[in-house]
Amino acid sequence: CRSCLVKYLEENNTCPTCRIVIHQSHPLQYIGHDRTMQDIVYKLVPGLQEAEMKKQREFYHKLGMEVPGDIKGETCSTKQHLDSHRNGETKADENSNKETSEEKQEEDNDYHRSDEQVSICLECNSSKLRGLKRKWIRCSAQATVLHLKKFIAKKLNLSSFNELDILCNEEILGKDHTLKFVVVTRWRFKKAPLLLHYRPKMDLL
To answer: Residues in domain RAWUL (predicted)?
Structure first.
């Protein structure tokens, strides 16, 4: 379960089963839900999904926090599914599936707007590259330096994003660093916006 994984990854950066390295410094950011396996388990164990949702709702209410949308959605769809089977209504089941798919589509169309946001200023510090027309951007704190490289390469019509280096305080950033990590470790919570520089990649001998 997630709580066991989180405890394990506080001291390790490998998969507890196959021992493959998840991520050198931030393994927690690279784990995700296995929805397929979860669905199989819920189908195999009667009443498990309803019990899990109930526990999660009680947990959030106990802390005085709002229940996350995905738990509300799962609870709602489970209830509709059970009601339709009790009443022998196949049409209700189709409607609940349709509503669930619509909710999922809404979540997919969020484009990380609900994430913590970071304001960035992208400056060019090389005469070999031109500056961006719009150098001020705002994006999710979970976006990585690689996302920024791809964005700059597209705007400057470069053949490959691998031709770029992005720096903060004159230090080259790793492509897997999230912007949240950069703000905390390199920018050290200084006043926004986060100032980043880009330049052509330099091959170090």
So the answer is: 135-199
| 57 and 125 fall within a common domain | no
In the numeric block, the tokens 């609940």 are attached to 96
Domain assignment of residue 76, yes or no: no
Cβ neighbours, 10 Å, residue 84:
18
Return the closest-CA partner of residue 146 out of 117, 173, 125.
173
Residues 124 and 186 in one domain: yes
In CATH, what number is assigned to the domain containing residue 180? Answer: 3.10.20.90
Global pTM? Answer: 0.47
Alpha-carbon span 26 to 29, nearest angstrom: 6
The Cβ of residue 122 has, within 10 Å, a number of other Cβ atoms equal to 21
Q: How far apart are CA 26 and CA 189, in angstroms?
A: 19
Tell me if 90 is assigned to some domain. Answer: no
Domain contains 78? no
pLDDT per position in the chain (205 positions), as tens? Answer: 777 888 888 888 888 888 888 887 778 777 777 778 888 888 898 888 888 888 888 888 888 877 766 565 555 555 555 455 445 544 545 555 555 565 555 555 666 677 788 899 999 988 888 889 888 998 888 899 999 999 999 998 888 888 899 999 888 998 888 998 898 888 887 887 899 999 998 765 5
Contacts of 106 (CB under 8 A, 6+ apart): none
Task: Identify the domain containing residue 196 by its residue range.
Answer: 117-200
